[in-house]
Design brief:
By secondary structure, this protein is an alpha/beta fold. It has a domain of 192 residues: Rossmann fold. 60% of the residues lie in helices and 10% in strands. It contains twelve helices and seven strands. Strands 4-5-6-3-7 form a five-stranded parallel beta sheet, with helices on both faces. It has a two-stranded antiparallel ribbon with strand order 1-2. The protein is elongated. The relative contact order is 0.11.
Length: 319
């Protein structure tokens, strides 16, 4: 579901919630009127004053209009005092910026963007461990300072973490680069992919995240069984597409065609994509068609994750 439709859904939900809250508040006031004759009288008098004010204003009777305004202030004060004694606070909107309309200053209100973010994050959390995947939970202490081959995983991953934070901070859906994260399993590729997604969704960007296996399976099922292309269109049009675990999908001529169409279309429309995979560049060239591999190799900035499986280290740390 694209941003526009998610926003519309949130605005409708906001309206429904406001309608329900107004009804509940109105019922409290009606119950107070049934139980308190003084309050009931104040409500009735205020209604009469309101009608009289309208007539007086239209007729141009300034003296009477001012008199009626004084009376309105008097009975409004009586009404509010009785409500206060009954423990009924004045009605408040959930969002003071838009008064629960969903729009502030002619634009989508921040409260709607927050609701949309929560919907997207909840959707992704069904298939990915999203809750703990943030930049500040990415623990560099799991990476060694040196390995027998002379590499320094901690230094390398520190630089990658810094680069990805900057990428997210300066993200532009029409200018940001494509990236491919590659390296062995358990080195943090999925964690950092989800960290990027988390922050960008919270900023209001339209991010689609899925594993290669799920993404291509959904697209194939929708296309051939349901005769719709919702997932495919989302993959083409989102601000950022993140394909997790490329190489895990069932490889067929159809999935190769879909993969090429998605990455090529997004390259041409300058929409960024992030791919993470356990495959090496050489394995990508061997596994996929030249059209697919050449786009990935030629158009994606590589980020090589190095080190030893941190999942095993996490298990040992808890023992």
């Amino acid at each position: 579901m694209d941003n526009e439709n998610v926003y519309l859904k949130c605005i409708e939900q906001k309206k429904d919630t406001l309608k329900q809250r107004r009804a509940e508040y109105g019922e409290k006031l009606n119950e107070l009127a049934r139980q308190n004759s003084e309050y009931s009288e104040a409500v009735t008098v205020l209604a009469q004053i309101g009608s009289a004010l309208a007539i007086s204003t239209i007729s141009g009777d300034v003296k009477n209009t001012e008199k009626l305004k004084v009376e309105a202030i008097k009975y409004s004060a009586i009404k509010k005092e009785i409500e206060k004694r009954a423990g009924i606070e004045p009605f408040k909107y959930e969002c003071s910026l838009c008064n629960d309309t969903g729009f502030s200053g002619g634009k989508i209100c921040s409260c709607i963007k927050k609701m949309a973010s929560e919907i997207r994050i909840k959707s992704v959390s069904k298939s990915a461990p999203i809750s703990g995947c943030r930049f500040d939970t990415f623990d560099l202490d799991f990476y060694d300072d040196s390995l027998p081959d002379g590499t320094n995983p901690k230094k390398k991953m520190t630089l990658i973490l810094k680069a990805l934070k900057e990428y997210t901070l300066n993200f532009n859906p029409n200018l940001s680069e494509n990236m491919i994260f590659f390296g062995n399993t358990g080195l943090g590729k999925t964690h950092l992919s989800l960290a990027i997604m988390n922050e960008l969704i919270e900023k209001g960007f339209y991010v689609v995240y899925d594993s290669a296996f799920n993404l291509f399976s959904k697209i194939e099922t929708e296309h051939f069984k349901n005769h719709i292309d919702d997932t495919y269109n989302d993959a083409l049009n989102c601000d950022l597409l993140i394909i997790d675990d490329l190489g895990s999908e069932f490889l067929s001529s159809y999935s190769q065609s879909v993969l090429y169409s998605i990455i090529n279309t997004r390259i041409l429309s300058r929409k960024p994509t992030i791919i993470n995979t356990n495959l090496s560049i050489k394995e990508i060239e061997q596994k996929y068609t030249p059209r697919v591999s050449s786009r990935i190799v030629g158009e994606y900035t590589p980020k090589k994750f190095i080190g030893t499986d941190i999942r095993q280290k996490k298990v040992l740390r808890t023992k």
